[in-house]
Please model this.
Amino acid sequence: MTSTARLSRLVVALALASVGTACGGTPATPSTTGSAATDASFAPARSPAGPPVLGIDWGKAASVARPEEAFQLPTTGPPNPSDDTVRSGHPLHFPGQAIMADVTTLPGGGLAAVGYVYPGWHPQAWTSPDAQTWTLREVGTTEFTFPVAVATGSDGRLVAVGRSGSLPLAWTSSDGVTWRTHPVPTLGTDGTAERMTTVLAAAGGFLAGGSVGPELFERHARFWRSTNGIDWRPVPDDPTAFADAEVRAIAQLTGGFVAVGVIGTAQQVTASVAWTSPDGATWSRIDAPDLRRGRAVALTRAPGGGLVAVGSDLNEHEAFAWTSPDGRSWTLAPSEPSRQYPGKVRFTDVTVVGDVLIGVGNYVGLQRGTAISWVSHNGVHWTEARSAPVQEQGEFYAVVRGGPGVVAVGSFGAPDDYIPTVWLSPAR
Model:
């Protein structure tokens, strides 16, 4: 499960990592977050008396471990240009940051999250037995390495995907504590960067998607298959079906697979696209008119059948949702005040608990953002969550069923700090 927020943040991180030192600044992953102000067209409900509601009321996990190299004591004065640990230019700013990019369940209970840490942009994982207390787990020390998605297979194996330098990379673990790294073959693109952006655990193994292309310019879609998460095979290129696109999410339906992604450059998304496949090896492109109106970044099977995709309009002024019975025809949900905001607003991920769809994201005003969620029974009409202090200056990146109901991972403190944070719903 991936999201616009974490992938756009990663794109900028990759670009700035090569120029940040030369410019005297930290290669931070900037955010579009802003003030948490609301208006009459977008006003989260106030919490009434009574028990907390799934997807509507959120609380924070009790403890999330922070990588020591990123979260030393804040600076207390102007930065010293000769000090390699403090180059952000922000007094009281931590020298680094950590992104919890995705989360999955552990075999036998508990959860695991993956992400990456600056300084160094190296991979990191966290595990929790109860969703409340999260412990750091080492994934590797290679710099410029980013796990961005993780899934749990039917045999309990965890598989994470992402990239290291200009190459796609995968990781496996049996418990979320110990991780092994596995190279991923490419189709040969003369050194052009390739990255995995999403992974699905399916019958018979794992299916991943991503793209090949320069960091800030046009992308070309890629898919990979694996029976065990260790040995991967790239799907042969289709110059027509994969053109000008990046895969963002994959789901399985009876009789095959469906993927959604975005069209355009890493800097400017211009539309969305879908693909269908009977086996994960051959893909047909679906350029549905309603998909072209926005950014589709996450996908799930709907409680009543079919699919629901979420994201935003092209300018991120409205959180968008689409429904599809089969991945071939797509319908954009009608606009409604609960998903509109005068600043920025977007879905970043979606999951299902029973007959309830829970979508997470954030909305943004002038400077700081607020984590927010929505619930729906049909993917068409969405009820916005209540806003609470624990959500302010937060960003939800991914959500999974677990804990008291669902668990969302993300960060707190943007745009000055990105501190790994976990939220639970319903709040305890």
